[in-house]
Amino acid sequence: MVETLLRWLTPAAVFATAVSASRAELVNLQWQDTGRFERSMAIAPGKFAELCGPLEPGQTIHWSFKADRPLNFNIHYHVDKDVKYPQKQDQVGSLEGVLAIDAKQDYCWMWVNKSTAAAALTVSLRRN
Fold first, then answer.
1. What is the DSSP secondary structure assignment for residue 34, as one 8-state letter?
2. C-alpha 32: how far from its chain's center?
3. Best CA proximity match to 126, nearest among 40, 35, 59, 50
4. What was the pLDDT predicted at 51?
5. 24-127 sits in which CATH class?
6. β-pairing, 25-28 with 48-55?
7. Prediction pTM value
8. Which residues, in sequence order, are CB contacts of 82 under 8 Å at separation 6+?
9. Which residues contact 22 (CB under 8 A, 6 or more apart)?
10. Which of 46, 53, 4 is nearest to 22 (CA)?
11. Domains of the chain, residue spans
12. Residue 17 needs a FRET pair 20 to 30 A away by CA distance; which of 3, 27, 53, 101 works?
């Protein structure tokens, strides 16, 4: 049955399926009309999840997350080849904070699962 399915899939589709199963989850921030972004996801052992999107000076982001196991967490953005970390904490199961945006950048919230089991993560962001 798998062989029959593979015959119908294009090589690109087979590659994309294999890559998505082995890679981390990258998510573009898409704000709701209410200024919120919420997401639940699983992070495979040894993989990461990252939420990224452009933010403007003067915006304030209230953020929180909860995971069922400790994860390495950071909020970061890139300036040329440098990575700036407004927030960074290892081995934390939940955290919340406020990020005041002072420069136009693509900001990323990132979680790394260093454990040997999948981690369940729930994230909430609110933009003011």
1. T
2. 17
3. 35
4. 97
5. mainly beta
6. parallel
7. 0.80
8. none
9. none
10. 46
11. 24-127
12. 53
**pLDDT at position 41:** 96
Dist CA 86 CA 103 (whole Å): 12
pLDDT digits (tens, 9 = 90+) for 2-48: 343 334 433 333 333 333 344 578 999 999 999 999 999 999 999 99
Helix (H) / strand (E) element for 7: namely: helix 2-8
| CA gap 73, 116 in Å, rounded | 17
Question: What whole-number distance in Å separates Cα of residue 79 and Cα of residue 113?
Answer: 25
d(CA 89, CA 81) in angstroms, rounded, equals: 22
Token duo for residue 5: 């399915």
Rg value, the chain, Cα: 17
